Amino acid sequence: YGFINTCLKSLVVEKYGEETWEKLRLQAGVQDSFLTFEVYKDEITMKLVDKACKILGVCIPADMVLREFGEYFFEFCKRSGYDHMLRTLGGNLYEFIENLDALHSYLSLSYQAILFSSVFPQEMNAPSFRVEKNEDGSMHLHYYSDRRGLCHIVPGIIGAAALDFFNIEISMEIVNQTEEEERTGKKEHIVFLVTQNPVFSYKERSKFSSSPQYLAGSENETENQLNREELERANNTIRDRGASVCPVKKSHWKTIRGIITLGKGKLLRGFDPVYPKSLWIDTKTFCNGLPFHMVFDKELRVKQAGVSIQKIVPGLQTMGICLDQYFSIVHPEVPFTISSIQKFINSQFVFQTRREMMPESWKQRPMLELRGQMIWMEPLQCMLYLCSPLLRTLHELEERQMHIADIAPHDVTRDLILLNQQRLAEMELSNQLERKKEELRILSKHLEEEKKKTEALLYAMLPQHVANQLKEGKRVEAGEFKECTILFSDVVTFTNICAQCEPIQIVLMLNAMYLRFDRLTTVHDVYKVETIGDAYMVVGGVPVPVPTHAERVANFALGMIIAAKGVQNPVSGNPIQIRVGIHTGPVLAGVVGEKMPRYCLFGDTVNIASRMESHGVPSKIHLSSSAYQCLKYKNFEMTERGEIEVKGKGKMHTYFLIRNKTATESEIMGRP
């Protein structure tokens, strides 16, 4: 179920980050999220676990990754609302493990109730646990699972439960690992030796004496020790007061109440049940009161059966018939022998009727399943199977043409069916909400991606801080920049090229050139103002003022000359030639227009930079005197051009930029 995969994702994201999860899921080839009650193939979980062990196993061994997952899974279950259910499984670790299969059985009822009409009506295929006490206080935990290679998760889960619920630390080691031999299903069978680590002192243990918290058998010894101490203190008190206390004969019940008070609410002596000399119930009442029960001997011969099971399986009315002729064992997957049943006697047993042995009216119905416990009766050498019909919903009841009245009034199966019917509707609603939530998450993710694309396009047209102000509906005030460097470039003989070529050839030529120039703006961190025809305009120091504006634009210009050599003239087939002009000075910058807002520069600096380009020389970078002064001591090689007549400006002293003395061509072009 998706719950398991969601837990694994949560662990990776929480402890190793979102990027690690993204890498893991891409390598495993699975989706990003999972619905809690959705059925997923085992292969998905196994791929995730395998990739997690490989990716995270670089830092820690694979078995430790699985153990960490086990510990986290326990905490994840608690956070998901199973805390109270887990705490009430048992009063000590032995009882807790002993009842894990019962918990799985309950959960399979709930999940199966949701999925009985699903496209994937799968049974919840949970692992199985069997625990044995040892004389030294340790335990042998038998773990059975169809999913191989996951046994290291078990110590993580059991260790976390022992520490959280019973305040003990345990160690678990594998003492045997085999293929299944005891059961009919081919399962991995791992045997763990579970021992308690001596971490608490006696005083620390006594704090928790009110609730059993130790491995099997250890709580009784602690209880007796506490009782002895309390009794000793009481005797001392009585001896101290003996002279002043009058001896008064107490009644039997006063004595009992005194013992309970002395033991702070706990009887000092162990509990001994009282049994009647003879059984005060007749056979008929017993078979009617427990309508779904069976008694059978070592040869599986039926000795007794409840009235309801006789009604459904008439063959049971013939005493002495073999039980395995009419039933098969569904859970646990063991051979139908008395020795196998005794070995798993603490497990819940699920029987299923055999279709060929059922009455004709049952041939078209789903087979009936019974669930209950086995009790071995040593004096009679017989096994008692106390069971109830395994029914989850009213739909399953109707399918078998049974009624609530067929189930004994004291049997909680009646309540379970009705409660599950209500819970089914609630969980189906929860499932729908989870699906809608997932759809909204995906839509939100797509929306975020589209938003980023839109922002990238907007930031390509306007400076980022200006674009953000416009998005927020604010007015963008024009700003004055005391000093910046502006560059203009154009293609030599562009008019002649246009006259001799198809329009598409011009577009392709300009696009190839501008793509190279645009990349260089990123390399040298200059701002592209606009392009008009073959003219390309950039500025350094605007919109973000920087002291190195002239060097950035100069390096960009050197890159333009090199990049232009890679663009072919569609007329001659030779590389195109460009003219570049640079000037440094003050400007005013602001946003113009509302329909197609543009970030524009105003001032005489723009005009002079344009004149530097128009009065330039092919494949040369033409500098004004102010630009020259900014680059004079910055490791650039420049030559003097002298005075020239500039249209609208008169005579001006200008220079040519030759190269950067310290930067290589690869550095200028931003190549690795």
From TrEMBL:
Main subcellular location: cytoplasm
Guanylate cyclase domain span: 485-613
Enzyme class per UniProt: lyase
Domain of life: Eukaryota
PROSITE patterns: GUANYLATE_CYCLASE_1 (PS00452), GUANYLATE_CYCLASE_2 (PS50125)
GO-annotated biological processes: cGMP-mediated signaling; response to oxygen levels
Keyword annotations: cGMP biosynthesis, Coiled coil, Cytoplasm, GTP-binding, Lyase, Nucleotide-binding
Annotated protein name in UniProt: guanylate cyclase
Species this protein is from: Atlantisia rogersi
Gene: Gucy1b2
